[in-house]
Amino acid sequence: MSRCFVSCDRPTTRYTNSPYFTTVPLWKLSRKIGLKRVSSRRFLSAKRMKRCENIGRRDRNSALDGRNLIAQQKFDYFLVLDFEATCEQYTKIQPIQEIIEFPVVRLCGKSFSEVDRFHRYVRPTERPQLTPFCTNLTGIVQGMVDDQLPVTNVLSEFHRWLIERDLVNPKSGEKTWTFVTCGDWDLGTMLPSEANFWQLQLPSYFSEWINLKKAFCDAKGYFPNSLMQMLNDLQIAHVGQLHSGIDDVLNICAILKQLAKEGYQFENTSYLKKGVVKGQKAPFFG
Length: 286
Fold this sequence. Notes:
Mean pLDDT is 82; it is low at 1-24, 35-45, 60-66 and 279-286. It is built from 10 helices and 10 strands. Helices cover 31% and strands 15% of the residues.
């Protein structure tokens, strides 16, 4: 069987002196020997690709007309959430990590514009004094949390906020909505662990959400390491301070809208069952 080297790089002496080297253009050679065109999609491991499959789908009707229309979504609203919590550098804070910022922005599922927002700072009670590392990371200083309500009260306020907007126990017809987070930590680890510590029964609406990283993987073909990587890929300018909860939420909103403009239809990716995110082997608490 004859062999032929095909290279897109500049020829070197080693290969140009070889009887198997060809300078025929790649597209001509491909057509001549019957090769199919292969896309330059980024490589994904089989394990990661499997994780990204069947999360969402492309809405081709809105993506193919070239006008950058927003894909039709199955949810009336998206509630974008990003907690900030007490922390220490290089060690796990004891006895428990506590939420200190609770920001949620409600996006319209048709226009992806902001409808309204719920934003509270939260007073930690087990470790009320913020560490310098926590302040440097989040931009939250001690005075921003000292006079605030603890997490149990903030959760009650948030529930009332949902009721007032007919998102829970609706009076004017049921509306479909879901949470969106950048990763599974917020609703898969942080909130369940604190609820368990305070012996709180979380409402069922906290049990499923869209992990933006998984949705991005399904849309783009690779799993992003960070919020910044998604922004850079989509050529979206970063707004505010990284690890400020409300600023992170606004940046997540921008990514959601851009993916929808590119024809992506979002679906829930993550589910909490008995304190465990579906697919995880170890429970987060209890």
